[in-house]
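REQUEST ID: PR-0412
SUBMITTED BY: lab tech R.K.
PRIORITY: routine
TASK: structure prediction, single protein chain
INPUT:
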Amino acid sequence: MVPGRNLPPRRPSRRENVNESIRAREVRAVFPDGTAEIMPTPMALRKAQELGLDLVLVAPTAVPPVAKAIDYGHYQYELKKKQHEAKKKQHVVQVKELKFRPNTDDHDYDFKKNHAIRFLQEGNRVKAVVQFRGREIAHADLGRKLLTRFAQDLAIYGTVEGQPRMEGRNAHILISPVKSKG
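STATUS: complete
OUTPUT:
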């Protein structure tokens, strides 16, 4: 062992709930031909091995536990595939940030508004920020008006979370997408 490294000793990789690792006294054994019967674990294991398969515990909390006679490698592959598919269908909600200035021109405003609409339709949240530089901070009311107008323009695409808030030299507002009923 290398001095200075406090790593726990490696455990030999032992497949849980497969063949001899099954600790239940009896199991409901399900075989490839569709038959299911309650039998002592060693007997079910012997029968599975005669078929050239592994005995895998698929429902360990059931009474008695359910074990299937299947190829363990194929079983693991199917599990990984299911997990991958489930992960693929998930949508991570992101916060997309749009920056404005107190005197943002109408064309630029419309351009950014269209981006915000697209973001909301994709299911992301939008954070609109008005940045004040130098003496612009004296006209914080212009920034608030801009954010209020922005929130009203996006009312059909998203719901506003609170009023425009000032933080230092920035004013911001958060808009969440409207949940589609489907």
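NOTES: Helices lie at 41-50, 72-88, 106-121, 140-153.
REVIEWED BY: pending
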